[in-house]
Each structure stands twice: as C-alpha cells, then as structure tokens.
Amino acid sequence: MLKQGLIKRIGDGESTQIWGCNWIPRTGMYKPLSSKQPNPPTRVCELIDHTSMTWNTDIVRHYFSPMDSKAILQIPLSLRKQEDCWAWHHERNGLFSVCSAYRMLIQAKKSREDYFESRASCSDIETRQKEWKHLWGMQLPSKIKVFCWRLALNSIPTGKVLKSRNLATTAECKICGAGEDSWEHALLHCTMSRCVWALVDEEITELLATLRISDPKHCALFMYCNIPQVEGIKILATCWAIWHARRKAIHEGVFQSPLSIMAKVNQLIQELETINGIKPEGMKKFQTKQKSQRWLAPEQGLCKINTDAVVDRVGSKGAIAAVCRGNQGEFIAASTMVIPNIIEPETLEAMACLEALALAQDCAIRRIKVASDCLGVVKNIKKMTRCAYMMILQDIHRRSKTFDCVRFAHEGRDFNREAHYLAKHACQFGAGRHVWLGSPPVFMDVNVLH
C-alpha cells in the first residue's frame, strides 16, 4: 500500500530511477508511460541542466510523450543542490494519513472494477473532483445539495435502483404504475411530476423537454452551470420538492397537490433570494472595491515586499512578481520572473516568495516582511511540509537564514493589487528575470497610499 502512494520529491535527481520510482506528481500514474526513443536515460538527474538547475527541455521532449513531458516540466526544481526525498502523494502536506490511504484504496478498487466490468469511468480524476467540488459549492440549502449528491450517484431509491440491489421484486413506479421507475421517470415523466412541471414557466418546461442527458450527475451540473442561475436553482429545487412529495405519498400515504408542492418551491426560492440576493452582493462588491487599493504598512523597522503570481491565458507559462516598499510606502525595488511550463498556482506563489528574498538581497535589505495572498503557501513555509513544491520551501528556509529578520504573512488580494498587476503585466515578457531599482515601471501606476 505504501508503495502505491509514496512519491519522490526531486532535488538533484541523483537517487531517483526514471522507470522504477514514483516521481511525477499527477493523478493516476506517477511514472512515465514509455520512452519514444531507444536507450533512454535511467536517472532523473540526466534530465536536468545542472548549470541553470532547470529541466533540459530538449532531452525531456525527445524521450517522453507530450503528456509525460508536460507533467515533468511542471515539477519545480531547487536552485541549490538538494537530495531527493520521499513524500506521501495523497496528502497536500506530503505526510501519510490513514484517511488518505483509505481514499486511495477505495479509488483503486473502483478503477479496477470499472476496468474488469467494462464500465465507463472518468480518466481525469482531477476533473471529476472539480465537478464534485462545484456540486457541493452550489448556493442551495444543504438538504437540496444532499439530494443532488445522491442523484449524481444515482442512489436515490427509485424502483429501478431498489430492484438492482435486490431490495424490491419489481421496478415499477408506485405512483403511476409505469413499468420502470428510473430517476428520469420519478422526477420528470411520472404523472405527479408532470402535474408539478405544468405549473412552471414555459421556458423551463421546453428546456426539460429537449434535454437528453442520461447521466444524473451531468444533468445536475448542467442545470446549475449551463443555464441562467435563477432557472437552474428553480429546476433543482422543484426536483427536490417532487422527490420529497413522492416519498410522503409512498411511505406515509400523504398526497400533496401540485399547487402545494409548487408553493413550497416558491417559498424556498424567495428565502434564497433574501439570503443570496443580487443587490446585497452587488453592494458588497462595490464596498470592497472602494478600499481595494490600500497598502498595509509593515512593523516599524521592516521593509515590506508584496508578492503574487499569475498564469498566462494560454496556460503555457507562469509569472511571479515582488514589489518592495519602505515602512512609509516609498518605492524601493520591484522584480518579475517569467517561468515557462510551470502553471500550478500554489507552486508559483511559493516561487514568488523566494523571489522576494532574492530582491531583498539585491537591495541589501536585512529586515523584511513578505506578504502573499496565498494562505496555503504561507502555512507551508512556516510548517516546512513535504508538499509538491517542498524544494522551493527548502530554498526559502535556507535563504531566510541570511537575513536578520524575515516574516511571512498572509494578506488578501485587496491589499496586494500592485504585485498582482505587475505579475499580470509580466506575462507579456519573455522568459527570465526583470528588475527595477529606485523607480517603479512606467506601467505600474497603483497608488498604494490611498
């Protein structure tokens, strides 16, 4: 079990076998698939240019498939010589936990079952995880989210599901007597359901009539993501109310009229509009925008370096930025670095913190406060975890020792606009480092003092 989840974090690559060790931090397979050319390299160190401490892109792309090459080139490398070390892939902090091991085994079991039983399964686990995250992030009451979750798993107890689990002798609908009580029948086509949908706006019923989605999870996500939010919420709330009314009728013998079911839906939507109304949200955004340019001064005797990172629109490179100011807000220096291939946001944020230390050394500043809007990176720097960018954390830790005082702090994006704007503009530059000393770039016009 440990061998399945352990992965090498690449330092100098000397001790990591390319074809025998788990070392590529991605979902599913942690080793390269195969070599495109005969006599491929055997150790990871052979793929690194040790002069610049970067990946030798020509060698990587020569021997590995595009999918493997992309994953390899996204691994951040340390600027110093560090030994490779082991970490647990299934926890963000790189440390083993029983819970993550259990999730790993369950996922492996499901993948094997899907393969042997020829069931379609998602090849992109990260995409599937994002779908579940999106489903649980819907602005709906918890009871409707749970209903949507059970619907997505096709586990609501319809006649068809009960029969497949040997919990019923027939799959017929107990409301209208139809031969097969599937989730589509129960929520859309049953006599009770049709009577309720007849009270809904004509645009919604026309949409449902043309809908041809057999997967319940895709159907739920489509309702919420691909149509206007008001209509999507109304459809999901109506499905929940119909299902609730069916259970009352089947198990308690309590039959509700379509008007009473629709009244419950309308009341629920009114409550949601009161809680998540457009006007309060709009006012909140407006009020936040008014103070978004503010800059937080550091403690007395410290210089402040704000950092940020962005990924270009094409998704082929990342850019990091650091802006250094004195205790009173006076500009001291700024720098950016454009990094090809690395596009993982948190990794880039960590590299931005490392760039802040390099900028401070360039200016001979001994006491600094580094501010980042990425809370995960700030926590990992303080805890020195074995996350995917742990070699960058090691560089930060060693370089911090050369200063008299270094403090890392998390600040929201509202207080970090200047660094964000600089990083965003840097995406237009070529690969490499760019530094401004004494006066800010002409395109950086953010007034941090107001």
Describe the protein's architecture and organization.
The chain has 450 residues and is an alpha+beta fold. It has three domains: 2-88, no CATH class; 140-275, no CATH class; 303-437, Nucleotidyltransferase, domain 5, CATH 3.30.420.10. It has 18 helices and ten strands. It has a six-stranded mixed β-sheet with strand order 9-8-5-6-7-10, sandwiched between helices. Strands 1-4 form a two-stranded antiparallel ribbon. It has a two-stranded antiparallel ribbon with strand order 2-3. A hairpin with a 4-residue loop joins strand 2 (48-49) and strand 3 (54-55). Helix 6 (142-152) crosses helix 11 (216-225) and helix 12 packs across helix 13. The chain starts with a helix and ends in a 13-residue tail after the last strand. The relative contact order is 0.09.
Task: Please give the structural blueprint.
Elements: H1 2-5, E1 6-9, E2 48-49, E3 54-55, H2 57-63, H3 66-73, E4 85-88, H4 98-116, H5 125-136, H6 142-152, H7 159-164, H8 183-189, H9 191-197, H10 202-210, H11 216-225, H12 229-252, H13 258-275, H14 278-290, E5 303-311, E6 317-325, E7 331-340, H15 345-362, E8 367-372, H16 375-383, H17 390-400, E9 405-410, H18 417-426, E10 432-437
Parallel strand pairs: 5-8, 8-9
Antiparallel strand pairs: 1-4, 2-3, 5-6, 6-7, 7-10
Helix pairs in contact: 6-11, 8-9, 9-13, 11-12, 12-13, 15-16, 15-17
